[in-house]
Amino acid sequence: MAALELMPAAQPALTTTEAPPSTSSSQPSQKSMSKAERRELQEKQRAAKIAQKQQPPGDAPNKPKSKPKPVAPQNPTQPSGADASRSKDATSAPTMDAAEMSKSRNLRIFSHFGLPKHGPGLKGDIHPCIVRLALQFSEFKICGANARCIATLTAFKTVIQDYTTPPNNTLSRHLMTHLSPQITHLVSARPMSVTMGNAIRQLKLEISGSDIDMPEQDAKDLLCQKIDDYIRDRIIIADEVIQDLACRKIKDGDVILTYARSSVVEKVLLSAHKQGKRFSVIVVDSRPLLEGKELLKALTSAPPVSWTLSNDSLLPPPPPIPCTYALLPALPSLITEATSVILGAHSLHSNGAVFSRAGTALVALMAKQHSVPVLVCCETYKFSEGVMLDGFGKNELAPSHLFRDISTSSQEPNLEILNPLYDLTPPSCITAVVTEVGLIPPSSISSIPMALGRISL
Amino acid sequence: MASEVSNTPTQRAVENLAWKLRRRQIVGSRATALETLLVLRHVISKSRFSNMEQLVTIIRGVGRRLVEAQPKEHSVGNTVRKVLHHIREEYHTATRGSAAASYSGFSISKFVLLGQPRKNTPLPKAESKGTLKENDPDDPDSFARSLKPVLMEAIQDVLDELETVYDNVSKNAQNHIHSDEIILTLGMSKTVEAFLISAAHHRNYTVMVLETAPSYGGRDMAQALSAAGISTFLVPDSSLYGLMSRVNKVILGAHAILANGGMFAITGSLLAATAAHAHSTPVVVCAGQFKLTPLWNLYHEYGALDFGDPSQVLGFEEGSLVDKVDVVNPFYDYVQPNLIDAFITNDGDHPPSSIYRLIKETYDDEDNEL
Amino acid sequence: MNIWATYQRKLEDEQISPPLAAILSLVDLCATSTAGTMFELVKALNEGSDSLKQHSPNPISINAGCELFIAFVTLFPHDSASFSDLKMELVKQGETYVRQALTYRRKIGELAVDFIKDDSVILTHSYSRVVMETLLLAHRSKRISVFVTEARPRGLGVKTAQALTAAGIPCTVILDSAVAYAMDKVDLVLVGSEAVVESGGLINAVGSLNIAIIAKSSHKPFYALAESYKFHRLFPLSQYDLPSHNPRILSFPPPIEQDNILGHPSSAVGSEVPSSRITQEEIAKNNPDVDYTRPDLISLVFSDIGSLTPGGVSAYLVGMFAG
After folding, report:
1. Residues of C in contact with B261 (CB under 8 A)
2. In this predicted model, what pLDDT tens digit does every residue of A343-363 receive, in sequence order?
3. Out of the domains of life, which is the source (chain B) (predicted)?
């Protein structure tokens, strides 16, 4: 229930940082932008007032906790809007001294980082399974692009089954309005992933295309079937194909280096091991999430393969995968030993850049320096149209209350702790992206929709 | 040998320091350099010698002893080398009058060595001290007696240099950090801390500190900087690449600066320098000149072949994993010279390419192996 | 005396490299010279070195030796009573130096061995006495394996491979064109040199530049080994600024008569016409023997006076000849 007590966030669903650039977002974005401006103005005035009281310059007026709510909708994809608000600030508060200016400037630089907003009050009719899911999202109990997408779609199945079309309305027209607040609620727990965005867009298409004349229960069953198909085709089967393709690139004696934990990479490594390949794995990991430990657990507890019969002779089970574990700063020492690097991804962009867990770009960069091939395993449904140039513009911060280390106390007024969750790996550092349509060079990522035979995903 | 060693107070002092070094009771390059210097001063003031060679042998012996105790702490060897260099210089100034006849040993191999870069020794002072006599059979201590005062002076100079090293490194801080810049640093380095705080007296800027796992020295650094009124962000190592596009400058500390202009530095430095290089962000290293080491990096990947405690990386709370997994926790990175833009030292700013010359000027070649 | 014949004779000793042979030839010249003054002696020496250079197809390494000896002679403090004593002294100095110089390879080997870690794969080029010495020294304490380039046109890589294999070092000859293919397996590159020049760069058997560029792009260290008598006061601006360059190198053959091709297109394709047959000798004739490796491609130069960065080499050269 903790989430419910916290501040309501006013941002509508599809305008958060991670939302796919969709057409429906322009109108609410404008509304909240003015809100953001107003808030910023208030901050300035408060700051000026404190400055007049002649506080020592070191004492920041903005305690980390009172950091303005991230002005998410005003994200860098709309630079003109941001600039406008900035210039307005400059004229409205000319009395601020330099120290104050630099303080607020810092805040502004990081302001677009989507800090997770804590659950809005239950606005409207939120299905209990969505409430639960939102809680799991906000506490990082369910984490990872695939897991979040599957969990969302599964929850939507329940929502759809429990839904009855109100009188004088049709399912194809009304169901989406019923789902919207649910989505909003999920997004308020944690910004939406590209995968969720893509899946929801597909779902919307299916809903609006459902037959008006179909009995309601049949239509709902059909939608649930479509959702199951989506999960099966785009995620589960895709993963199997990726496993198969990536396994072919693992040879006996290889040393595979991977970073953090990706569900696909984990499956690839386990299935290569199951095929009897003798290779070792280096897991590189970093705070704040330290997901690599999970991967280590999965790899070291790989089910003891029993004796296998091959060519009429009984073969002993292969030894467990030899694993090495290190934190990110030790990467340069280990990269020379690796024969290939296999990474996961959060989303793919049409310029070939891969948006993934923070730290991935460093691994790819070092691998490139040492001419170690870098494979990124990624299902095509993670494809996001649009170009991304750096991982700073669009990012998400891990909630510091979850990942604060014991030894740090942020009592210092000038000290802030930021835990960005993602970074962007430039295409130049990637050798190939392993998708279910094959290995593709990053330069051809934009052809994925064509490879799938459709215009839009 | 051992009993003889611990007999005199001088040797006790040497052994005492060697012991502390071996147990890592003295950490930090500057503290080690200071301790070494104090012991050397003690040794020189107490020991008896009647010619130059004896003195050099004594000091080398002490140096070797200390270096063996902690071969990873390069500032010990550096201090010994520096003292030897100063001793020779003082000796040459004192004996300039009588040493002119050395031309008779002129040969082609000597001629080749003429090319060796070294600091132009200042012209001998007008009054040449002709009183310096080596191996005087009547009075074996006369050499030591006449030389010791100048030697003490020379050591005092080195000591002064060490004591003012932070001030001198950060002297020009405001020329390197400009208003509104975003600076990235990592780990805990006293030199960098002093540099950044000094710059904060003149400029308003922001520092991002990487936590620098597994030692998490960055957290102490962030505390120290924010306490000094600098707006500070503490970020995990993984965010390095994502933030780099907004960083104006990367400022690093060094463990040892090597002869080719590369350096050993805390793990994570290479990653930061590489990411900075990829973004064309300048990388600046702040270090005192006592970190100049006339060595090369022999092993490219494992910086100094020094490893930390694996339990820092994978604690015993992960009991089931610990015995199934190899854990690697190297102490240092080797950062190649091409990734470094400048060294800011207590004696001026230098590009990596001139470190070689600097080292040739600071130490004598014959001391590279103690 | 015939200085060229003397030079050839000196070179017959397997241990004596061209610069040392040149120094020895000049020493002989000095001993037999009738010069009565320093000026005459230096003049005679310069003439001798010019004649050596004219005879040699590749004057660079001879140049380095001559330059060193002549510079030494001019700087030698000559306050001796009689000039013939001075000449004898110079002869003695020269001979002592050559004797000393023969120990340099060992000294360089000892420096370089520290940089070779256990179990490393080393790429070397052609044949070099100092590289051989280093590899054999490394073999005593470390496990090493070696790739050596064939080094066309002279094919000296085979000689290296035979010597290394005889010493029990695993060694494979690779094609000059396979260097890029092999580079990812290599830990470090070790080459000898004909001369090390003022820019800090290196002149060595043709192909070294290729290796250096490939090593650089794969971030592998490229080490050069050079005795200090190979330090040469020369600043090549490009490959074509080397003294060894001549118009024949890389020249195009005179055009084959046009009507021949037009008239019989089929015969032009099938190389039946004897005049258009390309032989190995012909290829070698139009190709350089040595190339110049830029200093930015070199990690370190190991020399008997220590391990030097390319910048350090040029500081030395300036100090020796200008100081």
Report:
1. 309
2. 999 999 888 899 999 999 999
3. Eukaryota
| Interface test mutation site (partner B, options A17, A111, A362, A423, max chain B beta carbons within 10 A) | A362
Q: Quick check: ipTM above 0.90? A: no
Can you tell me the distance from the alpha carbon of B84 to that of B77, in angstroms, rounded to the nearest whole number? Answer: 11
Same domain, C232 and C278: no
Domains of chain B: 2-160 (1.20.120.420), 166-367 (3.40.50.10470)
Same structural domain for residues C122 and C63?
no
User: CB–CB of A392 and B270 under 8 A?
Assistant: no
Which pLDDT score, from 0 to 100, does residue A299 have?
87
Q: Do the Cβ atoms of A366 and A330 come closer than 8 Å?
A: no
Residue A379 has pLDDT above 80, yes or no: yes
Q: Is the per-residue pLDDT at C323 higher than 60? A: no
The CA distance from B59 to B54, in Å, is: 9
- CB-nearest to A300 from B225, B241, B321 is B321
CATH 1.20.120 residue window(s) in chain A:
128-238
Shortest CA distance from B302: residue in chain C: C117
Does the residue C275 lie in any domain?
yes
Q: Which amino acid is at A119?
A: G
Segment 118-157 of chain B within 8 Å of chain A by CB:
none
Residue range(s) occupied by CATH 3.40.50.10470 in chain A: 250-305+316-451
Report the CATH number of the A128-238 domain: 1.20.120
Query: Where is pLDDT greater, at C272 or B223?
Result: B223
Nearest residue in chain C measured CA to CA from B261: C309
SS3 A324: strand
From chain B, the residues in CB contact with A58 under 8 A are 228-229
Burial call B115-125: b when 16+ CB within 10 Å, e when fewer: bbbeeeeeeee
Q: Would the CB atoms of B239 and A420 count as touching at under 8 Å?
A: yes
Are residues C264 and C209 part of one domain? no
The answer as to whether C241 is a domain residue is no
Q: Which residues contact C38 (CB under 8 A, 6 or more apart)?
A: C73, C74, C78, C83, C86
C298 and C274 together in one domain: no
Interface contact flag, C231 B114, Cβ < 8 Å? no
Sheet bearing C231-232, strands edge to edge: C231-232, C195-197, C202-205, C290-293
Last residue of a domain, one of C42, C71, C101: C101
Quick: pLDDT tens for C65-115. 998 888 888 877 776 667 888 888 888 888 889 998 999 999 999 989 988
The second-level CATH assignment, the architecture, of A250-305+316-451 is: 3-Layer(aba) Sandwich (3.40)
Q: What are A's interface residues with C at a Cβ cutoff of 8 A? A: 369-371
How many domains, chain C? 3
Residue A76: per-residue pLDDT: 39
Which of C56, C77, C101 finishes a domain? C101
Q: Is C233 helix (H, G, I), strand (E, B) or coil?
A: coil
Q: What is the pLDDT of residues C118-161, one digit of tens each?
A: 889 999 999 999 999 999 999 999 999 999 999 888 889 999 99
| C96, C231, C315: residue with CB nearest B107 | C96
DSSP category for residue A207: H
C126 and C75 in a common domain = no
Q: Across residues C60-68, what is the average pLDDT?
A: 89
Per-block mean pLDDT, blocks of 10 residues, chain B (370 long): 53 85 81 88 82 85 86 86 86 62 58 60 42 58 75 87 88 87 91 92 90 86 89 89 91 90 90 94 92 76 64 73 81 89 91 87 79
CATH code of the domain in which C96 resides: 1.20.120
Q: Is A194 within 8 Å of A384 (Cβ atoms)?
A: yes
Residue of B nearest to A288 (CA): B236
Flag whether C244 is in a domain: no
Task: Determine the structural domain holding residue C267 and report its residue range.
Answer: 252-285
Its pTM stands at 0.80
* pLDDT at residue B25 in the model: 80
- Among residues C99, C74, C98, C20, the alpha carbon closest in space to that of C321 is found at C74
Which of A401-405, B304-308, C35-39 is predicted least confidently?
A401-405
